[in-house]
Model the fold of this input.
Amino acid sequence: MNAPVIVASPPAAASKWRAILQSALWLRIGLLAAIVVALEIYGRIWADPAFMRPPTAIFEALRKEILPEPKVIAALYMCVAEIAAAYALSILFGVLIGLAVGASRFSRGAFFPIVLLLYAIPQVALLPLVILMFGLGPAAKIAFGLSHGIFPIIVNVVAGMRDVKELHMRAALSMGASRVDIVRYVVLPHMVPSLFTGLRLGMTMTLLGVILAELYVSQGGVGYYTRVFAESYNPAPLFALIGCLAAIAIAFNELVRIAEHNLTPGKRRTHALKASVKE
Amino acid sequence: MNDIAISIRNVTQRFGGEGQADSVLALDDVSLDIRKGEFVCLLGPSGCGKSTLLNIVGGLFKPTTGTCTVEGRAVNGEPHPDKIAFVFQESTLFPWYTVIENFHIALKFQGIARTEWDDRAMAALRAVGMASFARHYPEQLSVGMRQRVNMARGICVGTDILLMDEPFAALDEQTRMVLGEDLSQLLAATKKTIVFVTHSLAEAVFLSDRIAVMTARPGKIKTIIDVNEPHPRSPDFMLESRFSELRNECYALLRDEIRATVAAQRDPQVAGS
Done:
């Protein structure tokens, strides 16, 4: 909309280069590179190889000891499947319970404090009990991921439903909206940004839950291999495996972020704005 | 009496039970007739119950005692979206829908056939000069543009009666004047009956056929002032001496009420009486 003003000052190509040079991206990349180089120097010169290896050795271990090893790859796949299952269940039950709790002032008053109470419990203390109940297989990991992931989703769904503006409700009522209409066209769309806040937090918590359970006890899972590598004082493949877990975590978080970007009316708005400026 | 669109009879509104500490008498025995095609302003100090009265007419509140009939049908705390449309402040546009989707949803709630949605919405948008912004989200528009769209949304549903609850309160003085002119022109074209709540003296004089000046809480109708000036009104009307005289008359009537309101806010015991 203000495009003429911006284009008028410097030539377009020059301003584009300046924009690239001034972006925070460079500082970010530089900072990461500096950390890797510092680790490399420290790892090669001072570090005890039983506890720490430089990044190049870790990358080497990833290439030679992790990726060609079908059992480790199978363990990583299993981990991804556990996270996906735990997260899917967290969303399903989190949204359903959230909608039920947030449905009215009465249900919120009755159930929300209980949800917050459960949310406040440090669940790691219950991990041995979860393992006893669900065994050493994937079920325990999924259960522990679910119990972590579900709470932020419930809490944010309830919060999103609670904050509907009085003026929007009155406007909808005056237009002749029924109770069902109000829920479908006012309360639910209003809740979407808050829902995604919950989904993002829920993703982080699900990852935490699954990986905690994996590390605590595991037969041939990622947890098993981390222990094998750690106990044999072989940090290079250990760090490579942890790097794989980090990559999985980043991938899942990105998925949620992309979904949020495309499904939130508020985010779609910025898209529409860019499109209209181009016209 | 067939030309009466809205008839308010002895309406009293009390919030909270009588005799309780938090009980507030918002309206006290208000009666008012509004003719078809008339533009009536409810003017009063803040908190005098003018919005409450509007909500009673619109069926959003049920009066404690008294009756309100709209086109011969009693309104008793039930909205009549086929007869009455509301226009609130611009922030009542749903931010998660585009401009056109906001119209669609209003027409849908109203129970109007889907095939008519686009035609009606675009006609209303053209009337306020916003047709090229149909696919924008409200947040991409300026406050004045949003209020234009919001007015058009109230008009597109095609009711005979439009209730406007301080629609321009969030706008700056200049935008407010421009939108006032637009409204005056729109209304001259549509012949709707309008009840308009405001605390702006100039707005009331510029837009209304009649101004109902209300007292401080509990709200009563203090006086009704006639403004004999045909619609659509041009901004020149504001420069005429008659405009200033009417405005001053309103101010003289309101001054004591505003003082009473401020005094009541200082001392809660007076407010509770």
About this structure: The longest helix of chain A spans residues 179-216. Residues 176 and 182 of chain A are 10 Å apart (CA to CA).
